[in-house]
UniProtKB/TrEMBL annotation:
Domain Tryptophan synthase beta chain-like PALP: from-to ranges: 71-390
Pfam families reported for this sequence: PALP (PF00291)
SUPFAM superfamilies hit by this protein: Tryptophan synthase beta subunit-like PLP-dependent enzymes
Organism name: Halospeciosus flavus
Protein name as annotated: Pyridoxal-phosphate dependent enzyme
Domain of life the protein comes from: Archaea
Matches recorded under InterPro entries: Ser/Thr_Dehydratase, TrpB-like_PALP, TrpB-like_PALP_sf
GO MF annotations in UniProt: lyase activity
Lyase is among the record's keywords: yes
The UniProt record lists the keyword Cell inner membrane: no
Amino acid sequence: MPLERVCYDCGSRTTTPVARCDCGEPLWLATDPSALSTFDWDAVTDAPGMWRYAPLLPVDGVPADDAGLLHAAGGTPLLRTPALDDFAGARVHVKVEGEHPTGSFKDRGSALGVAAVAAGHAGDVSAVGTVSHGNMAMSTAAFAAAADLPCLVLVPADVPEARLEVVAQFDPTVRRVAGDYGRLYERTLDVGPDHGVAFLNSDVPLRTAGQKTTTLEICEAFATGADTASSATASTPASAPDAIVFPVSSGGHASAAWKALRELRESGVLDAADVPSLYLVQAAACAPIAEAFEADAEDVTPVEEDETIAYSIANPDPPSGKRALAAARDTGGAVLAVDDDAIRTAQRELATEAGLSVEAASAVALAGLQELTTRGTVDASDDVAVVATGTGLKEATGATVEAPTVDLADVDDELAAFGDAK
Ligand SMILES: *Cc1c(COP(=O)(O)O)cnc(C)c1O
Ligand SMILES: [Zn+2]
């Protein structure tokens, strides 16, 4: 079954398994129109994780019961966290993507991509690849291992050995590549299929199809009252949050969110007035999409990247930058940037107030929400889903450690002091 691909920008369609339109913009997969016309929350299947949305996914149904890791993608909790409301200035709901097997939302796109390749839906390919040395590399390698597909991971020449070890545990083929990493990203999309390799890079159609399930889950939780703590009364449940905040790098996840919202609108599940605004947040040290938004530009101009603790989202030349801009504008949202101090503060807040360890790149979303409420763009009464894209348990957090050593003989005194002080 060849999957039809559509350009969000010029509307061109193709069944050739390419990632880019002739106009240069990224393609996404057309969703079955008959599935769209009949979709509502009752149409979701009783399947594990993201596969409950099988009618809206380019798959022939739910993966078989013995599909292993595929069943562990999606289905992450959306937590109502009042303890963060004061800090954020709005009613916070945290989507905990760090619960995934490899610790980030990338597993949604990897699962869909690997399932599609294994089922022969991705053209004449029998292997997967990716251009990444972070979460995407780990995720693609893990899902490929579970599906017994060969996997090629291309990393920059100067990546530290320690970063590669976490990827290498899944035994992909790893090659360091000297040269421009952005050009390598596009080159692999062009040439991979000629050699039977489907490159599941950040914003390709298959990855985007899988990653739209983050947003479907958030909206379903509101619509069906699974998130019973939304501000609406029980008799008039909110059908969606007022806003969803994402950290953004390539723009792939944000594009997927936009696609999900367009599909919910098209199927009549969401009224135009109820579509949540998409707010996209970057680290100030590398914020090409936020700069383009501020400048009212139609497209993104590449920037020189500075160091940031949010290294997972430092992309100076985002391949879906223009599409992310369109996503924010179409939904009445915005793209903004926050500095490293604000990111650290938000990261600490998530840990100390909500018990959630997220990586710095993910804390960007909460820092961005705080900025939006300070500006008055988002109201205190708004229900806002903050997408915590990845776990912090894989990295050093910079938290101050105060742990003096006490002698066993002095532990009673220590407990007494702690008990008095608490
Ligand atoms: C990849 C990643 C992002 C950014 O997603 P894009 O689709 O590239 O915009 C954000 N947070 C984490 C933890 C990631 O791994
Ligand atoms: Zn186009």
